[in-house]
Amino acid sequence: MTPGRRSSTFTRLLRHGFTDPSAAERLLDGPELTLVRDDPVLLEALGATADPDLALQGLVRLLEAQTASRNDTAHRELLDTLIAAKPLRDRLLGVLGASAALTDHLARHPSDWQALVTYEPRDLHPGVEEFERGLAEATDPVSLRVAYRRCLLSIAARDVCGTTDVAQTAAELADLATATLRAALALAEAGAPEDAAACRLAVIAMGKCGGHELNYVSDVDVIFVAEAAEGATEAKALQAATRLASHLMRICSETTVEGSIWPVDANLRPEGRNGPLVRTLSSHLAYYQRWAKTWEFQALLKARPVAGDPDLGLAYVGALEPLVWKAAERENFVPDVQKMRRRVVENIPPAEIERELKLGPGGLRDVEFAVQLLQLVHGRTDPGLRSGTTLDALQALAAGGYVGREDAARLDVAYRFLRSMEHRIQLYRLRRTHLVPEAEADLRRLGRSLGLRADPVAELNREWKRHTGVVRRLHEKLFYRPLLDAVAQLAPGEVRLSPEAARERLVALGYADPAAALRHLEALASGVTRKAAIQRTLLPVLLGWFADSADPDAGLLNFRKVSDALGKTPWYLRLLRDEGAAAENLARVLSAGRLAPDLLMRAPEAVALLGDGDGGGLEPRGRAQLEQEIIAAVRRAENAEQGVTASRGVRRRELFRTAAADIVGSYGTEANPVEADQGALVDRVGAAVSDLTAATLAGTLRAVVRGGWGDTLPTRFAIIGMGRFGGHELGYGSDADVLFVHEPQEGVDEHEAAAAANKVVAEMRRLLQLSSADPPLLIDAGLRPEGKSGPLVRTLKSYEAYYRRWSLVWESQALLRAEPVAGDEDLGRRFTELIDPLRYPEKGLGDEAVREIRRLKARMEAERLPRGADPKLHTKLGPGGLSDVEWTVQLLQMRHGRHVPGLRTTRTRAALSAAHAAGLLSAEDAGILDEAWVLATRVRNAVMLVRGRAGDTFPTEPRELAAVGRYLGFGAGHAGDMLDAYRRTARRARTVVEELFYGDPVA
């Protein structure tokens, strides 16, 4: 061959899509293609395939196989037919260029290309009967595999040539699977005629086979049901049917010299792999009536009898179908289905999730789950929706107005594209995979097989991402959008969701009052204003987030209230529409309980905090920053009352910020998953609320002094935080436990100083409790010397005298949490120096002091526990609760604090960590106590968030209890699991407390 010609051929090959023109030239110049190498039709046909190089290599292998069979006529017949018959040429080369596995089959069985020659109408769309004829000559598992591959060859040929679309291809694959199961059962029965005579066995296809939408390579999901034949006992029949079913599975699944067909998977049966392989119809029915979970009814949507006794198969479907369409009435139906979908995504290895075509976000399973959810909700009353085929069901849902026509059409296109990708990926090697390949050559072949020829890899990636994006945006919206159409004005001819269908859907979503929910939707979304248009865009997504909470009704009602309050402000809806986090954060906050919505309703503009722009976000602000803002507001105020009002306004806003951050961290969002470290959540809330309380007290003190005395009070004045306040562990509903200490200014009469100090305290307490839109801040000085009988304010000298002469052991224990929080810093520091020897005694605690602390603890448990309360669920005083952990830690602090610097802290968790570091308790015991303290604190925070008022026990009202569970990470329907987990955690902690607190003194 001359150089000029070689260059010309090389260029033509490149133009026709070959990536290795040199190798292609050698093959074209080889002996197998001597007769046709210059035929332009061949080169054009090869260039039209997904992979011209692969197609040419496969053609040469097939011709070599004809030659190896010493059949020159067959070799010439193939070449003549290839050039003369365009249908065969397109089919054969199309398969060779798309499937290395089917090329291998043709090389082993060189005459099977003849299966592609016929081009009759029935050949275009064969059904089960045609495939049964194709498998009829199979007499053993090996010949069944050969016949199966021959039939698969014809399906693949029609697929790659575009004779059938992806839905028709999937249906043909399911029909071929049906014929194969029947053939395998016939082989099993022929091998054990006595078993066949003893039972009636039906094979029920499930999953994609049952739904008539099978992949090229997929497990074929089945369920077996059997009855005794006449004259046989049930036990004998079940044994015989089990042997037949097992043999059928082996015939299809086992690897032979011709490979395997596909695994037959019976794990969707009752009790899964732990249950019997075969059951009677009555046994199946009893299980589904009593024990089945929601997902099992969802799986039965696709149940279809395919092999064995047809009457028994129909009886099975007829008996179970009514149960399927009642599944949506089950408690927590929608959350159960959605949770199953989330669990599937969570189980995908992180390295694969972006390439996962079936199970990943925006993948095939999202469409299938959304469609099945809608079928189960509305199929009860509309039999037209009861199709096992995803695309048929989607079309029926659109026709009935259950989903928007445009949304359904876009999902249909996306689903078809993704299924086509899945088919072509599997067809190449005939391997079960749903991962998009990474290699350039594989992506190029895949793109070309889908008709993307200009830049196959770039176009494929672009189209793939576009379609998954469509699915991600629409699959949940599909469920909620028609609820708005049901209350909105639609274009003429549009089908709307009927009121009854809308009610059904809202009930399935967990709404207790669907009529009220529809009224809210109508108020928010009806009309032609820009505001209503934006609401119609937002609400489908918001409704999904509300449904993910324990109280969707409250979420929607609160959203309406906020929208009514802020509807005319230009930034509100724009914030929700344009800032990704804001809308989801708002939905979580509005549906999580009463406290956060109540705080928000008092000043709805705080919605801005929920965005990720200039609103400050949800990160808590530090004490110095808070104090600076409050003091500045006090300076601008005309009097003390205005100054304290400003301080309380800041407190309300920051309480909302803290509560919102806590809820978002506990629920998790698309952008931010659930906070894994529960202790960090507790610490963040405790520090934020404590800092906020300290800043509020500092601002109030400044306002009162400024209003009554100008810049200088006649006495130095300091506020000492006690209890949880001093420990930086305040909860949302905690009072501020404090001590007040003062010291007269030089030259000031003590009586005058005391009068001023008492007046300051009285005025602070009054102003912080004034009725207003802001929550009050209660100041509790009950831990002062002599308790309620003693003076409210003392001088530093008075405290010194009292503690030196009269102090009791419980007072020393209480001082472990004392920390200056506001007022004169030097006075606060000197107060701390005064009390350190009391709370960290030089010689530790004597035996009598230890016994006294134990007596006090026991008396407190006996006397303070509310009547009727379940001690095991009381987070403060119950076994393993806060009191147990804190008193144990405080006993260690008083015993060893003088010599272990790390124990000299007001914070429980820090002291516990220091005790472990000092070897005073084991890592296991420290971990158990820490876990119990964190959980009890989280429960108290949850109760306040949910009920809007403080409490130390779990709520009894079911929705409130479910909301507490949701905050703690327990899904719908798992409140019992939450209570069990609390009891278990508390019980373990109590065991440690019994040893450390009530046991022998630690050396």
Q: Count of helices?
A: 45
Radius of gyration: 38 Å
Mean pLDDT: 91
Structural class: mainly alpha
Strand content: 5-15%
Outline type: elongated
Number of strands: 10
Distance between the termini: 99 Å
Task: List the SSEs and their pairings.
Elements: H1 3-15, H2 21-28, H3 40-47, H4 52-68, H5 72-84, H6 86-96, H7 100-108, H8 121-124, H9 128-135, H10 141-160, H11 166-191, H12 193-198, E1 199-205, H13 207-210, E2 220-228, H14 234-253, E3 264-265, E4 278-279, H15 281-290, H16 294-300, E5 304-308, H17 310-324, H18 333-346, H19 364-378, H20 390-399, H21 405-429, H22 440-449, H23 456-474, H24 477-485, H25 499-508, H26 514-525, H27 530-547, H28 552-566, H29 570-578, H30 580-590, H31 595-602, H32 623-636, H33 640-667, H34 678-709, E6 715-721, H35 723-726, E7 736-744, H36 750-768, E8 779-780, E9 793-795, H37 796-805, H38 809-814, E10 819-823, H39 825-839, H40 847-864, H41 882-896, H42 908-917, H43 923-947, H44 958-967, H45 975-996
Parallel strand pairs: 2-3, 2-4, 7-8, 7-9
Antiparallel strand pairs: 1-2, 1-5, 6-7, 6-10
Helix pairs in contact: 1-2, 2-4, 4-5, 4-6, 4-7, 5-6, 6-10, 9-11, 10-11, 11-14, 15-17, 18-19, 19-20, 20-21, 21-23, 22-23, 24-27, 25-26, 26-28, 27-28, 27-29, 27-30, 28-30, 29-30, 30-33, 31-33, 32-33, 32-34, 33-34, 34-36, 34-43, 41-42, 42-43, 43-44, 43-45
